Amino acid sequence: MTIVIPGELVGKQRPRVVRNGGVTRTYTPEKTASYENLVKLEYERQAHGEHYPSGTPVSMKITACFALNKGDSKRKRDYKLRGVIRPTKKPDIDNVIKVIADALNGLAYDDDSQIVTAKVYKVFGETPSVTVTINEEGFI
After folding, report:
1. Which of 45, 34, 33, 36 is nearest to 4 (CA)?
2. What residues contact residue 73 under an 8 Å CB cut-off, 6+ apart?
3. Is 140 a residue whose pLDDT tops 60?
4. How does DSSP classify residue 106?
5. For residues 54 and 133, is the Cβ–Cβ distance under 8 A?
6. pLDDT mean across residues, the chain
7. Is the peptide bond before 91 cis (omega within 30 degrees of 0)?
């Protein structure tokens, strides 16, 4: 199964903790929650309910495509599109995996512990997006 999430990637942010009187509450930051909801919506729209049951090992491939800078020269744009220059900016790879894997919990698979192999690529492209491919282990 492959899904494409349009727009710029938002990496997983740390949970926030607030104390109000004697009560401590933990919550997910709004940017992370919104992006996870977008991933869920795109999965439901594109994957048509495809699901890997508990105990099925799965492989995940994520390609995060970042927008080109408008001020880049033609040469620099060409280098970025050909992969000579790669994005070394935030979010970190581990936060990319975490936001996608957590968002698809209970939808694409029962739990993200089923992911036994993950490949993540950060590239530049004309249109920012994230492409996620999930297969039963051995088929990616």
Report:
1. 45
2. none
3. no
4. T
5. no
6. 91
7. yes
φ/ψ of 114, rounded to 5, equals -75, -15
User: How far is Cα 40 from Cα 126, in angstroms, rounded to an integer?
Assistant: 24
Residue 17 lies in a domain: no
Q: Is residue 86 part of a domain?
A: yes
Confidence of residue 139 (pLDDT cuts 50, 70, 90): low
For 24-65, how does the pLDDT look when each residue is reduced to its tens digit (9 = 90+)? 888 778 888 899 999 999 999 999 889 999 989 999 999 999
pLDDT digits (tens, 9 = 90+) for 97-130: 999 999 999 999 999 999 999 999 999 999 999 9
Total domain count for the chain? 1
Within 47-137, residue ranges assigned H as helices are 74-82, 93-103
pTM assigned to the model = 0.88
Residue 51 sits in a domain whose CATH number is 3.30.1330.70
**What secondary structure letter does DSSP report for 10?**
-
- Rounded distance between C-alpha atoms, residue 129 and residue 96, angstroms: 12
DSSP percent split of the chain into helix, strand, coil, nearest 5? 30, 35, 40
103 close to 62: Cβ distance less than 8 angstroms = no
Instruction: Tell me the residue range of the domain where 72 lies.
Output: 2-12+22-136
